[in-house]
């Protein structure tokens, strides 16, 4: 990702944080999806993009948001370590954090 992409990702994160703290769930979910979509498309892997676009991600994001409702203040901040790993160009750490992020939701479902 370019620095411009990373800056955009940070902006999405900050807007998502604001939406979460102001209890604007609809906006939080839209921004969460935008955050993940930005990372998926930055990978430039057609197979990953196809999977992303066909998995009804907004539904899963909504479900995850509802399942985490009692820990809502923790939902958005768990994205920032991913941003930090990407900015540090630590591909392995970014990959590990993204996997953990996904499997955390999977375990709840």
TrEMBL record:
Transmembrane segments: none annotated. GO terms for molecular function: DNA binding. Residues 1-102 form the GntR C-terminal domain. Keywords: DNA-binding, Transcription, Transcription regulation. The keyword Transmembrane does not apply. The keyword Repeat does not apply. This is FCD domain-containing protein.
């Amino acid at each position: 990702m370019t620095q411009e992409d990373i800056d955009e990702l940070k902006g999405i994160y900050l807007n998502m944080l604001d939406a979460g703290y102001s209890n604007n769930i609809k906006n939080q979910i839209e921004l969460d999806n935008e955050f993940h979509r930005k990372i998926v498309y930055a990978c430039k892997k057609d197979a990953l993009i196809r999977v992303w676009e066909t998995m009804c991600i907004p539904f899963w994001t909504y479900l995850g948001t509802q399942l985490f409702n009692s820990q809502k203040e923790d939902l958005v901040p768990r994205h920032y370590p991913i941003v930090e790993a990407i900015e540090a160009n630590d591909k392995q750490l970014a990959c590990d954090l993204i996997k953990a992020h996904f499997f955390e939701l999977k375990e709840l479902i």
